[in-house]
Amino acid sequence: MKNAYHKCPFMHFFNIKTCFFVVFLVRQIAVLGLFLSALFSLYLVPLGMYSPCIKEAGTLGPAPTLIGHRGAPMLAPENTIMSFEKAVEARGQGLETDVTISYDGVPFLMHDSTLRRTTNVEDVFPNRTHLDASMFTWTELQQLNAGSWFLSRDPFGTASSLSDEDRLQAQNQSVPSLAQFLEVAAKSSRLVLFDLRRPPYGHPYRQSYINTTLEVVQAHINSSQVLWLPSEDRKLVHAVDPELQQTSGEKASIQELTDEHIVRLNLHYSSLFFFPLLCKYLSVNISTNLYVISQPWLYTLAWCAGAQSVTTNSIHILSRMSKPLFLMTPEEYVLMWILTDVVSAVLIFAIFVFHW
To answer: Whole-prediction pTM value?
Structure first.
């Protein structure tokens, strides 16, 4: 009886059987109270959430401009003329690439520091596969195939969807020069955005690679079409060619950006979480390009957030989007969650009553 007394604090008022029932009931009520409190909190959470796609009617801006990331790399080998032509065909308004300088001073397109991933350098120059791509002359680079890897490795799982004609064309792609790339952009009136890699120590053009690249740009395209991303010697470059659209890859204060003549930011898509900051930049005519956005739902967020352009691998998919995947007014959002909460509350109550 002593043990039972300690287990049941209500022994002064009830017999032992009734006492244990009261304890059970109190515990059930306590558990139910905790459950209902947690449930009520969950009901309130959506009402405090934020999404750029919850906007007042009529405030959605234009769709972000599409810039092909290394062209259209899901449809053709990246950084090849075929890839950029495919991006143009898919109605991309800009072309993005990566530039380095050959050992004899020819700017060419290559993303990686070596040639192993996107060329057959192991077959042509088996003893030089470890070398930096810029340590090859332009004549040597022209001996390489820059397309067969795309068909054999199928990086996006899209090679099987290519026509026989496209497969043959992809198979025979070569490493393009910057001049060839710019001619495609100039002919189609596309914007160009490129990163420029400095050659390693011992390279003949390590000190003059900026000037060498700038000369090619000025000779093959209208400077106003170029989003100039390299940060080195930016003020000097702007002085030489003020028509270039100076573009920065880093967030900074408005004063710092204006001092550098920055008119566009090239930022990772995670910058969507700094939506107020992007709006602040836009208020002083500094637009934002976000990379790399290839999923329609992420493009939808960028669109709602007011990004002016995005760099994408799936330009052929995003160019077909005529509106965001989801968009609602604050009133519609609140109404949706209230109705959802009411329906779920009714179902939970019915389950409790049935179970009881």
So the answer is: 0.85
